[in-house]
Amino acid sequence: MNYQEALMTIKNGDVKSVYLLYGTERYFVEDLTKRFQNEVVNKDDQSLNVVTLDMTQQSVQTAVKEAETLPFFGDKKVVIALNCSFLTGQQAKSSIEHDVSYLENYLKNPLVDTTLVLVAPYEKLDQRKKIVKSLRKNAIVIDCHPLDEKTLRDYVIRSADNATLKFTKESLNLFVERTDFSLDKAINELDKLNLATDDSGKITTQMVLELVPKTTEESVFDLVNQLLARKLVDCLETYQELLSQKEEPIRILALLMSQFRLLLQVSYLQRSGYQTPDLLKALKVHQYRLKLAQQSVRRYSTRLLEEVVVMLNQLDYDIKTGRVKPEIALELMLIRFCRDKAS
């Protein structure tokens, strides 16, 4: 079941006993959990009959026991179990021991007065696990993965229409880029734009530029192209912007290394005859990120990309071994590279 289908069943009052929400789109997860609370439990009863548990802090046994407990002075109860990493193949990061046999037994005969919502905000579940198979058989599984680019654009346009807002083609392109193709970010930023529009409801490119901040990744991509073009002033300006956003130099370096490695991979694979669909499958990156990488690769040689990757790897090694201080080392590297062949 997808998000839209789940909304319809909840609105129609067709709420079942056990749900599993899995996927990394936070907007879907948060919206659905709120709707379960508001549709199942009367507002006056929610303080007593809506229980939210974090599975990094408490066990699944505790969640099941809560689900088995009758509503307190009410007709219905909702139990929400967040961060159910025991459904994935991930290694546990907490010391909490989850005995999933409690959940397996509960699924055989869930309490009709309780809606148990398990939240797994991860890309994949471990389909080999018995408990995952049992949930797929005995619970309603709702896919909360991010939308593809076209569906995301359509959703943003519909949300804007509902608020009597209208994007231009250019402002929509910039908006989805600035919100990192995340529906959660897009909805939040759309609320901000709604407050800034006039009676026409038109959202211009200038409004998006002024009101929707760049993501860190977008700023780093700007820095990549400025570095390759040896534009020293622009490089330093973007670097200082990142620092002003409380980004650590080590993280900026890590993002630079990741982006340049992607450019190099695209360059190598394209020379081997890979087309865009092949690259998406091989590299497992977002289509938009690949598009930007391909644009950069067309402008710069493989040899130049290799030179920068070697330089960044050496800087990373020098920082990790304590030879240089990260606060100034990255800035000095930008200056030296831009001046090297620009003069």
From TrEMBL:
Single GO molecular function: DNA binding
Full protein name: DNA polymerase III subunit delta
GO CC, alphabetical: DNA polymerase III complex
Enzyme Commission number(s) from the entry: 2.7.7.7
Domain annotation DNA polymerase III delta N-terminal: ranges: 19-144
InterPro entries: DNA_pol3_clamp-load_cplx_C (IPR008921), DNA_pol3_delta-like_C (IPR048466), DNA_pol3_delta_N (IPR010372), DNA_polIII_delta (IPR005790), P-loop_NTPase (IPR027417)
UniProt KW Transferase keyword: yes
Family: Belongs to the DNA polymerase HolA subunit family.
Cross-referenced Gene3D superfamilies: 1.10.8.60, 1.20.272.10, P-loop containing nucleotide triphosphate hydrolases
An individual GO BP term: DNA-templated DNA replication
Reactions that this protein is recorded to catalyse: DNA(n) + a 2'-deoxyribonucleoside 5'-triphosphate = DNA(n+1) + diphosphate
Keywords of the record: DNA replication, DNA-directed DNA polymerase, Nucleotidyltransferase, Transferase
Occurrences of domain DNA polymerase III delta subunit-like C-terminal (ranges): 217-337
